[in-house]
Amino acid sequence: MSIIRVHDKEFDLYIPKDQIERAIKKVADNINRDMAGKSPLFLVVLNGAFMFAAELFKSLEIECEVSFVKLSSYSGTSSTNVVRELIGLDHSVAGRNIVLVEDIIDSGLTINYTIEKLRRLEASDVKVATMLFKPKAFRFGYEVDYIGIEIPNDFIIGYGLDYNEHARNLPDIYKVVS
């Protein structure tokens, strides 16, 4: 499929599945190196990061735990600039090494909110892993430690990313064209 339609928009194939898989393997290799012996807690941000996280964990060789949080700051194709916590943290993070797992970081609002919360809860260290990163849209000063692929500031869907809750199941990533 090269061009697909979701709701009122058309999308063109942008990042094929094999390129996504290589990027995830690179992220996993870097985490394996940096987190060896640290037994981190991975916090996966739902809904979008579920596919990235599933593939990432297949390549992690370190001792670790995983939990999920559900946060939202988008409506349609744009940010609301307000983070809503739909499912909260259910683990103690005090003194823990945390790796936040996100599908995409554009403005950085959601992860900034989460980093600040984890620091208030006395996490020992907080790292950020994302499948996709939009550096030109990024508005915050925290470091994104593990980046799969840097992309321009385009609206994309597929591989966990949605347009009004549709298209998450696509194995490739598509960019809006109209």
How would you describe the overall organization of this protein?
The protein is of the alpha/beta class and 178 residues long. The chain has a single domain, classed as Rossmann fold (3-Layer(aba) Sandwich). Helices cover 22% and strands 38% of the residues. Strands 5-4-3-6-7-8 form a six-stranded mixed β-sheet. Strand 3 (41-46), helix 2 and strand 4 (65-75) form a beta-alpha-beta unit. The longest helix has 18 residues, at 17-34. It starts with a strand and ends with a strand. The model has no long low-confidence stretch (mean pLDDT 91).
Structure at a glance:
With 178 residues, the protein is of the alpha/beta class. 22% of the residues lie in helices and 38% in strands. The protein has a 6-stranded mixed sheet. The protein has a 4-stranded antiparallel sheet with strand order 1-2-10-9.
Low-confidence stretches: none
CATH architectural name: 3-Layer(aba) Sandwich
How would you describe the oligomerization state of the chains in this entry?
Answer: single chain
- What's the order of the H and E elements? EEHEHEEEHEEEE
The CATH class is Alpha Beta
Domain count: the total is: 1
Biggest sheet character:
6 strands, mixed
Which percent range describes the beta-strand content? 35-45%
Strand order within the widest beta sheet = 5-4-3-6-7-8
| Approximate helicity band | 10-25%
Secondary structural class = alpha/beta
Q: Which fold does the CATH topology refer to?
A: Rossmann fold
Sum up the overall morphology in one term: globular
